[in-house]
Amino acid sequence: MILCDAHADTLFRFAENHKPPYDLTLERLKAGGVSLQVMAMFVGIDPKPEVIRDLFARMLKAKDKLVQEGWVQADDPREAREGQTRFMLSVEGCEPFEEGLHAIDRYRDLGVRMAAITWNHENRLGTPASVNQEDGLKPYGLQAARYMQSKGIALDVSHLNIPGFYDLLNKTDAPPLASHSCCRALCEHTRNLTDEQLKDLFKAGGYVGVNFLPYFLIGKDKPCTLDTVVDHIDHMHQLGGQGKVGFGSDFDGIDTKPEGLDNPADFPALIDKLRERGYTKQEIENIAGLNFLAYYQRIS
Fold it and tell me: What pTM did the predictor assign?
């Protein structure tokens, strides 16, 4: 079975010299059967340009160190193979692209294949859900989004506000994805996607990786289990998400996890839970990874 995880923040933890243990290790990825792990280069909590430049330089050094230690970088998600573990780069917050389209070229050459327009800071491209729900993509944001698509970089709506979401959906050349997002109907939070957003995204051919953060899955201080994760997958399927839903763990970016889902080595338990909940073998294989690969095939 090919298994893909659309989001983790491990490179940020490496770059910031956070002490182990990390959620992601190569051994845990292999134990969990992860074929492709998307490793986000997270923009960080300090929006000053010089701080972001330094942070991204350190994350790229951390990436190079992983390769030296035996990790294998994929330039195309369709390189994923059962029984092998690769990682692919993404950007979480497009501040590094604010200086111009040439910056997009540079990061694409480094292997970036996915970019979230914003994190929680407003930038030259757009506005996050945490700031307001009024402002759509900015003129440069739309230009940069179209340029990213032309370079094979998928556009990630996680963290983006609703007007920006619909600008990407309606004014660009390919459907976006939400790499690590959940259902607002099941857990009220501005970071989660409404039923209308999910229906429209799935109808357009987009993709959603379900986030494992309990605060987005069920809310604060409530029991969160493997069943809670599957509840969000169920709900997305009811909205037209068959063939367009998978995993976006946010490992190494979340402080708490669902019971029984502490790190990538626990993915088999989630697969077992899908089976227990009545998903067929083909549906499970699709959710585990084939849907993610099919999304990239659609936007190519």
Answer: 0.97
